[in-house]
Write a structure and sequence with these properties.
Elements (H helix, E strand, L loop, with lengths): L2 H7 L3 E5 L8 H11 L14 E5 L5 E2 L2 E2 L13 E4 L6 H11 L3 E4 L9 H16 L3 E3 L5 E4 L4 E2 L9 E8 L2 H14 L3 E6 L8 H8 L7 E6 L5 H14 L2 E5 L4 H11 L6 H11 L2 E3 L2 H13 L8 E6 L2 H14 L8 H10 L10 E2 L6 H13 L3 E8 L7 H12 L6 E5 L6 H8 L8 H25 L1
Length: 470
């Protein structure tokens, strides 16, 4: 891995080229985010703690920091440059960054390869210049990056995601901004977050190769429109998947979608069958929608893969959601556990006689948090159960917040994966609580099944690797 990419996530100093005091400028949002973590706040404790150098020849002071007319005028070393100036000025800025000894540059400016052939030529020339100095380039036409454990936000987005075990990479900046908002509402977090833009130099393979070395990353999530170097990606992804799971959403599955991708970031989205084959070869788990991408990523980041010796159990206080979950499991080929006589007898002791006596385990609409907790313990102790989905429909007899605590208590210490679904209770304290305690919570039963399917897929990939090594 190129160490200069590591400096992009762990810089000792940053120059913001195009920083501005003017509210409507991208450079204003970028430097505010670097300083405060979130451009809407003014708390220096939330922002980047290293050296920050604003660069703007038309300003003397920006956010109480001395501004420099060019990066060459900065008296100290600079590890990372964030560039937010008009496209026509970027090639000259790259030359100056190279002379300064900058290790990595993030080009937020648009107006390059996505605009056509001339833009691509300019991109290629900038990369050639950067390589001559040993510098790496992210972008252009990107939102920037977050390195959450460095309190580093080099983007022009309006919010700072929470810290967590997922590292994300996206070819779309707007996609990134939407995901940040979603993560804040769903209470999950990130270690790193990269908008990769046009991929003139640093590409998906470079980023996931770095992610594999990051101790805070437990799962990689990707939004892909197209890969510029599929052979390189296949090789790197194959190795990364041995260490940690990758889940990807590949857009441009249809001809219309591929044309849209080309106009968006100048990418040429290849045949979807080829991508499907590559995902299978590498072990990447494929999502088909945005919600599936993060249902799978949260499950993979927070829960262990199940044993392949048993099946999945579903416990619910409502038959309808249980049937929906069963249908979803059948569609995905997810094996459901057949309850043993011993498990049924154990459940008979904690449930009313009318419980379903089969999987899904319907413990009835009047189920209390205690009944849930006892049923969960029985199922997690059952040899035939390798993972558990806990579904709750809102009922007067089932207090969601107390139930959330019981679920966490009952699952504590188990080596089996547990996923919850508080059906329809979006942004409730109950679902937020279990999420913060490491149990992914999905809005609907089929989403929980999809998350569990991702975990089973991961178990199969790990088993495949074991077999190949034997």
């Amino acid at each position: 891995m190129d160490e200069n990419i590591r400096y992009m996530f762990h810089p000792r100093s940053i120059a913001i080229i195009g920083a501005s005091n003017k509210l409507w400028k991208v450079g204003h949002a970028v430097i505010a985010n670097v300083l405060y973590g979130d451009c809407l706040r003014r708390d220096r404790h939330l922002g980047y703690k290293g050296k920050i150098y604003p660069v703007n020849p038309n300003e003397d002071v920006i956010f109480n920091l001395p501004a420099y007319p060019s990066i060459l005028a900065i008296p100290d070393e600079v590890d990372l440059a964030v560039i937010a100036v008009p496209a026509r000025a970027v090639p000259g800025v790259i030359e100056e960054c190279g002379k300064k000894g900058v290790k990595a540059a993030i080009i937020i400016s648009a107006g390059f390869g996505e605009t056509g052939e001339e833009g691509r030529r300019v991109e290629e020339a900038m990369v050639k210049t950067a390589r001559g100095y040993g510098m790496r380039i992210l972008g252009p036409n990107c939102l920037g990056i977050y390195s959450l454990y460095e309190d580093l936000n080099t983007t022009f987005a309006r919010a700072m995601p929470a810290r967590g075990p997922i590292s994300f990479i996206s070819q779309s900046g707007a996609f990134c901004a939407s995901v940040i908002q979603y993560s804040l509402e769903e209470h999950f977090g990130f270690s790193n977050f990269v908008s990769i833009g046009n991929k003139s130099d640093i590409d998906d393979a470079d980023i996931i190769e770095y992610y594999a070395t990051d101790e805070n990353t437990k799962c990689v999530a990707m939004y892909i429109e197209a890969l510029k170097n599929a052979r390189k990606f296949l090789k790197v992804a194959r190795e990364v998947c041995k260490k940690m799971p990758i889940v990807a959403l590949k857009s441009g599955r249809t001809e219309i979608g591929r044309n849209a991708a080309k106009s968006h970031t100048g990418s040429i989205a290849g045949n979807d069958i080829a991508y499907e084959a590559m995902f299978r070869q590498t072990g990447i788990y494929r999502a088909r929608t945005m919600s599936e991408l993060f249902d799978a990523a949260r499950a993979l980041a927070y829960q262990p893969p199940p044993s392949l010796d048993g099946g999945i159990a579903i416990v619910t206080n409502s038959g309808g959601p249980g049937v929906v979950a069963t249908d979803a499991a059948s569609d995905l080929g997810l094996p459901l556990a057949k309850l043993s006589e011993q498990t049924i007898n154990e459940l008979n002791r904690v449930c009313p006689p009318e419980w379903s006596h089969r999987n899904p385990v319907d413990i009835l609409g009047d189920a209390s948090p205690d009944r849930y907790a006892e049923s969960i313990r029985v199922l997690l102790e059952a040899k035939e159960v390798s993972g558990l989905i806990v579904i709750t429909a809102p009922q007067a007899m089932t207090d969601p917040e107390t139930l959330a605590k019981r679920i966490v208590e009952a699952a504590r210490g188990t080596h089996k994966p547990v996923i919850a679904s508080f059906v329809g209770m979006i942004s409730s304290p109950a679902e937020n609580y279990v999420e913060t305690q490491g149990i992914p919570e999905m809005s609907f039963p089929e989403d929980a099944v999809f998350g569990m399917h991702a975990l089973v897929h991961r178990a199969r990939i790990l088993r495949r690797e074991e077999i190949w090594q034997e």
